[in-house]
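Justification of resources, computational component.

The compute hours requested in this renewal are based largely on the per-chain cost of generating structure records like the one below. Each record pairs the submitted sequence with a full structure-token output. That output is archived, and it is also reused by downstream analysis tasks.
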Amino acid sequence: MTEPLQLRSEEVEALLPMAECIEVVADALAALARGEAVVPLRSVVWHPDRHGLVGTMPGFLPVPGTAGVLGLKVVTVFPGNHALGLESHLGSILLFEGKHGHPIAIFPAAIFTAIRTAAVSAVATRLLAREDAGDLALLGSGVQASSHLAALKEVRPLSRVRVWSRSGENARRFAQVESARHGLPVEAVGSAREAVSGADLVCTVTSSREPVLEGAWLASGAHVNAVGSSIAIARELDTPAVVRSRLFVDARLSAENEAGDFLIPKREGAIGDDHIQGEVGEILIGKVAGRRSADEVTLFKSLGLAVEDLAAAYHVYRKARGERPEAAR
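The structure output for this chain reads:
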């Protein structure tokens, strides 16, 4: 057996264009909804002073014509790294072939997190946003804001982009860089409310533990991707924002255990478990309905699943080995 393939982040990025990743994670979420993929809850160990954590995310992904692929994402999350100019999510993805368990790849995790997280939001947006949606509000100006702009551009004809950040300087820098990158005007604004006003696409991609988005600000017919929080005690949306939205998730089990945006309104008695309409994968396979009308507000709560990482990583592995990309799907 050959040594596991190792790639640098820039090599992964070159092998994983956003448009391809969107289709790869869509296939993985559909496989999960059909009961073919396996994704247990992640395991988290906090640093004693709770300024950071290490999480492990194992999973199994079916691959046609093979015994499938097993894998594990190990990642540290240190939100304070942003202030030092460092990534907040660091770690590795380990891939094993499913017949004998041989390790086949070791990849840096941060680049996959950046790309596949936004790709999943793009899948949800494609399924849930209005067809004519094109006014995008980004709350947050970091890596995920950049990748979400690139991803949503793939699934909706963006005509306007506004970005807000707690750091006005960061928002202005983001607007300048991303405007040049995409040939699309990106405007830095002074408040989250100003960013969201009239927007029909909203992405919350912050590290905040308290709400940055209020339900009263949301326009009729808006679609929201809530991405930044992945623990039960933190949220980016206030309770009215969740109450007025039809809520979809990547995995119900994860949302019922880890999604503060869902769990905090539930603890307040504002919603129950039945507020979750379904999983994105269930929309893909026709098990549940997505958007039902032009004026309803839809919400996708993203937590990130190992199967998304495995699908993206295996796609990169196959391409790096010179195999047809379609074989990874």
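The domain at 129-301 is CATH 3.40.50.720 (Rossmann fold). The chain has eleven helices and 14 strands.
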